[in-house]
Structures are given as structure tokens and as C-alpha cells.
Fold this sequence. Notes:
The chain is mainly beta. Helix content is about 5%, strand content about 40%. The chain has 2 domains: about 1-50, no CATH class; about 60-190, Jelly Rolls (Sandwich). The protein is built from 2 helices and 15 strands.
Amino acid sequence: MKIVHRSCIERGRSSIVHDLDGSAKLLLGSPYENCAIIAEMSTGETNWRDQGVKVIRAGELDPNTPQTPGMTRAAAITYARTGATKLWAGTVVVQAGAKTGPHHHGELETVLYIVTGRTRMRWGDHLEFSDEAGPGDFIYVPPYVPHQEINARPDEPCKAVVVRSGQDPIVVNLEMETPEPVSEGSIEIQFHPEP
């Protein structure tokens, strides 16, 4: 028995049609004629144990990622580890007082979830905008946005979960001045130095 899921737009509403036998036809004039198949699977034929949900335990994160002084990255969700093709997820720990140089991540979208500590983000053509995030806060960085990450605490690391919309570690380091004041004991680093 085939289970087919279709995503449909009907008069501005989203609806889902389930065809349990796989034989339904879309008729011209049907309210479902613009449906797009978003998933098709045959029951009993897929090895869901190997091709289904993956759980990456805290002790299984992969530290074999590019590392930079002042921060530690560990990969959780990658193609090699889980088969993910459209996103990358992992953790980052930024030492107290550390900050990146100005950069952007090309076409990638980035989400950070702050677990502990406090981070300050600067962004814009001249890094003229600034905001801070703490535990429980999310940060969204759109594609091509020039930005700089700063651990806002001089006395504790900042720990975050990072999710990106692609597998490639796209980073474009930018030659620009930052309005971020230099603090005693701060470490200026580039999170993703060029190879």
C-alpha cells in the first residue's frame, strides 16, 4: 500500500490530501490540481531504523571541525553523521571576552540558540547595529549580512547551538573597522579563518 502526501493550496489555504492506494488522479478543475507531492513512501519497504530519525547524544559530538583560538566547535548534524543534506548543526563555545572579525556566510542562513553566557551581535554595512542575547534567546542571521559575534561577558564562556542552512562552511572575512571597543584581555579571532 502506498501512502502519498500532497501539499495543496486551495483559495489561499494550505491543506493536505492523503491518497492511501496511490491511484487517485488529479482532475482539471479539481481544487487539488496544483498539489505538489512532498513525500511518497511505500509502507514495509523502507528500513526506518537506518534511514529514519537519528539521535546524536551529547558525548557523540564531533570536534573534528575547523577550530580557532578562543572558540571550540563540535558538529552534531552533518551529511557524514546523519545523512542531512540541507543543514548543519552543532555547538560552539566562545571564551570569555573573545570576538570574531567581521564576516558573512554567503547564501547560508544561520540560527544560534544561546545556552549559557551572553553574546553581542553587531551587523550592518559598518557594523552599526548591535543587540545582545542570553540563555534561551535565538539569533537569526540572514544570508550575506555582515556581522561580528562578541562574547559579551569578560568572565564566562558563551555556549550556543548553531544551525546553518547548508553543509558547506561558507565564510567571507571582511576588511572593515568595527565600532566594538577593545576590552582588556579580549581576544580578537576569526571564527572561520580562510584555509
